[in-house]
Amino acid sequence: MHFLNRFRGRSQAVLAGLPVVLVLGLTGCGGQTSAIEPEPLYVTKGKVELADGSPLSSGKIEFLPLKARVAETIGEIGPDGGFTLKTNDVDQNEGAAPGEYKIRIVPGAKGLGGKRGLTRVVDRARLPYHAKYLNEETSQLTATIKAETNELPPFRLTK
């Protein structure tokens, strides 16, 4: 019983300090409510082409920022290979923040081999481009978004 009494005393002390911890945690240090800094966005368009110059006609292109506090951007690739970037968040605002980005390509329905549980599986044999483009670390695709309207040169994907 003596042990339980000591434990009760400690738990009451911890509970007494809980409101202070909650208030400090909710107010934070910088007064901002988001981990992503709101930065101005600039319209960014481009095209994705296959090795023969024909357009990649479906899928997504994802721009992953080198600066950690900038939102990812994503573009739906249309039948002509064209895309317009939008933020990859709840608002999906059109445009991208200025900065350096690594890029990956997410296949459309033709490059997907089905599902394994809840995960979509990529059938690499069905991809019209090399599988290295699936990962931003191996794709060797990069872009610089400027603080102005951006018309990016075409991204040509090899097989």
Q: What would you say this structure looks like, in words?
A:
With 159 residues, this protein is α+β, with helices and mostly antiparallel strands. It has one domain: Immunoglobulin-like (Sandwich), CATH 2.60.40. It is built from one helix and ten strands, in the order αββββββββββ. The protein has one helix at residues 2-27, and strands at residues 44-50, 60-65, 73-76, 82-87, 99-106, 112-116, 119-122, 142-145, 150-151, 155-157. Strands 1, 2, 3, 4, 5, 8, 9 and 10 form an eight-stranded mixed β-sheet that branches. A hairpin with a 7-residue loop joins strand 2 (60-65) and strand 3. The longest helix has 26 residues, at 2-27. The chain is globular, with a radius of gyration of 23 Å. Mean pLDDT is 81; it is low at 20-33.
Break the fold down into its secondary structure elements and pairings:
Elements: H1 2-27, E1 44-50, E2 60-65, E3 73-76, E4 82-87, E5 99-106, E6 112-116, E7 119-122, E8 142-145, E9 150-151, E10 155-157
Parallel strand pairs: 1-9, 1-10
Antiparallel strand pairs: 1-4, 2-3, 2-5, 3-4, 5-8, 6-7
